[in-house]
């Protein structure tokens, strides 16, 4: 592993991101050697967390392309034990995680949600229209789908 060191990046780095409303805790601010802020121009005063994280990681790898992380096996094992203990919500999960301490599962090839769970939100009215089109009963935009009135309470409650 390459570690840090290049371009002013220290060997060990923690990237901590705060909430949009209150930022990071005072404890984190006081522990930080450096702080960064991503200035924005235009209509928005904040970025989505994943966008911010991606921008920071891309910048770090641009500045120090050899940075890969180089925890030794002892550090990894200690971190894994602490992390697994926090992940477990039930005694059964704690037992399952404990079995994986010495031989952790392999990382996923693809971190995205499975295709069957990648559905966008649609209202009941739109789902009814979609079912009607699939069933061969094409409805016009002014007709009520599945007996719902246009702009009814049921529709408003889902938005």
UniProtKB/TrEMBL annotation:
The residue ranges flagged as biased composition, category Acidic residues, are 147-159
Please provide the Gene Ontology terms (biological process) for this protein.
tRNA guanine ribose methylation
Stretches the record annotates as Disordered? 94-159
Q: Which InterPro entries match?
A: Alpha/beta_knot_MTases (IPR029028), SpoU_MeTrfase (IPR001537), TrmH (IPR033671), tRNA_m1G_MTases_N (IPR029026)
Going by the entry's taxonomy, the superkingdom of the source organism is recorded as: Eukaryota
Q: Where is the composition biased (Low complexity)?
A: 135-146
Domain tRNA/rRNA methyltransferase SpoU type spans what residues? Answer: 10-57
In Pfam terms, one family for this protein is SpoU_methylase
| Molecular function GO labels | RNA methyltransferase activity; tRNA binding
Q: Which UniProt keywords apply?
A: Methyltransferase, RNA-binding, Transferase, tRNA-binding
Q: Where is the composition biased (Basic and acidic residues)?
A: 109-119
**Which protein is depicted?**
tRNA/rRNA methyltransferase SpoU type domain-containing protein
Species: Heterosigma akashiwo (Chromophytic alga)
């Amino acid at each position: 592993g390459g570690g840090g060191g290049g371009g002013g990046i220290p060997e060990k780095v923690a990237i901590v991101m705060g909430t949009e409303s209150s930022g990071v805790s005072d404890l984190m601010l006081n522990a930080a050697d450096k702080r960064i802020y991503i200035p924005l121009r235009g209509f928005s005063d904040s970025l989505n967390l994943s966008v911010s994280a991606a921008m920071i990681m891309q910048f770090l790898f641009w500045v120090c392309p050899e940075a890969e992380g180089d925890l030794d096996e002892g550090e990894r094992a200690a971190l894994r034990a602490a992390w697994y203990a926090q992940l477990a919500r039930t005694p059964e999960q704690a037992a399952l995680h404990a079995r994986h301490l010495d031989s952790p599962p392999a990382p996923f090839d693809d971190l995205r949600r499975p295709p069957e769970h990648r559905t966008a939100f649609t209202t009941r009215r739109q789902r009814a229209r979609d079912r009607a089109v699939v069933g061969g009963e094409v409805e016009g935009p002014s007709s009520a789908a599945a007996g719902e009135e246009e702009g009814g309470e049921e529709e408003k409650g889902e938005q």
